[in-house]
Amino acid sequence: MPKITFFLFFTFVLNCKSQSFNEVNLNLNPTIEYNDKSKDEFKDLISVLKRFFKTKNNSYSENQYWLPHDNQFYNYPFFELYKIENYGHSLLSPNLLTLNKITNERYIAKIGWFDNSNGQSSLIYIYNILIVKYQNEFKLKNILSYNLRNWKNEKFDKITYWTPKNIEVNKKQAEIYNNINKKIGVFFELQPISFTYFLCESNFDLMKLIGYDFEESMFFSNQNGALTYPHDRLIFSGNNQEINIHELVHLYVYEKFTEIHPYMNEGLATLFGGSKGFTYENHLSKLKQHLKSNKVDLFKEFFKDNYVLDYDTSLQYTLSAFLCDLAYKKGGKKSLFKLMKSGKSIKKLQNTIEEVLMIDIQQFDSYIRNELESYDFEQKSQGFNY
Predict the structure, then answer these.
(1) In this predicted structure, what is the pLDDT of residue 73?
(2) Cβ atoms of 270 and 246 closer than 8 Å
(3) pLDDT digits (tens, 9 = 90+) for 220-253
(4) N or C: which end of the chain has fewer CB within 10 A?
């Protein structure tokens, strides 16, 4: 699951729909116990959870066991579960770990997902679902609004900030972000987008806020993380800052380009706003140095595999940003936007790269190395002029 940045919303929808339309059975942790006083009530909770998981694939937007109109923030309040289940090439099954009582009408169900594909059971996720009493029946609910009970919100022009009650938004930074928003809107030839921004201190806090107790990136040493839900115009930023340009670009890409390849989506966001707390130039310079001392088949690793230099820098993000940069330098926005409209398949992306950059895709490796060698880092360090 992408924890540091986000893939396209409807790409997920299509993938999930093709992989997981069958019934999903909820497994029960054998350690779940309840005393005689709460036995019947807990049985009701478990029954609602089981029935929801069996029927949730019938619709992405509503379910008879989910609270109606649970869309204060999300249009698809239980969509996170589809992304959790579709883990790489595996389809994970949910396991009810515990039921925690908050009040007589409110409980938290902790659901775990384990990967057993390698012959051993590895914990991948623990995610919380709220259970509330509604018209004398228990219904499930997204936990975000509950987790925001000690947060406050404040609107600055186009941006609504959510912060913990003890944190004040830096108004000067909010003003700068609004100005950036307007400039990016001009670049994309769109009106400035209004959006909601959740300011979290770290990626750990971000993931806790949206409902996770365990997800591997929560415990990485680099805690600069972010998630974007373009369809809902939500940005969750774990960089402890009022500004996150990378995620903002994803909102505009979603509005502007319907047939963009995920690589180019991340590439353009990285070109504008860097990634993992580092600028695009930082990543590109690191890649240039890495290639001098490591044998890397750029064509194979970029188009077929998922090569990473280290935790902070991936080949796909960095080369995608580089391709966007080269396209813009070659033909301005016209060439860049053409690259953004390449289509979602690798073959279509390769064809568009050939057209825009006027190269033979079979010479991709040598072309990239030559362009890297002649790249003027001092000129580019002035920033991408949007």
Answers:
(1) 95
(2) yes
(3) 887 888 999 999 999 999 999 999 999 999 999 9
(4) C
3-state secondary structure of 312: coil
Mean pLDDT of 44-56: 95
Measured between alpha carbons, how far is 25 from 152 in angstroms, rounded to an integer?
38
For the record, the structure tokens of 192 come out as 């400035």
Cβ proximity of 160 and 193 under 8 Å: no
Query: Which pLDDT does position 269 carry in this prediction?
Result: 97
Percent of the chain as helix, strand, coil, to the nearest 5: 45, 20, 35
d(CA 146, CA 174): 26
Give per-residue burial for 221-253: e unless 16+ CB within 10 Å, then b: eebbbbbbbbbbbbbbbbbeebbbbbbbbbbbb
- Residue-wise pLDDT for 255-272, tens only, equals 999 999 999 999 999 999
**Residue 151 and residue 142: Cα distance in Å, rounded?**
16
Integer Cα distance of 155 and 197 in angstroms: 10
Spatial distance between the Cα atoms of 227 and 230, rounded to a whole number of angstroms: 10
Strand pairing report for 159-164 and 195-199:
parallel
Give me the residue spans of the domains in the chain: 9-147, 151-256, 257-386
CATH 3.10.450 fits 9-147, yes or no: yes
Contacts of 216 (CB under 8 A, 6+ apart): 3, 124
Q: How far apart are CA 264 and CA 337, in angstroms?
A: 10
Lowest mean pLDDT among 21-25, 44-48, 135-139, 213-217: 21-25
358 vs 376, residue with greater confidence: 358
**What one-letter code names the amino acid at 199?**
L
Distance CA 322, CA 114 (A): 37
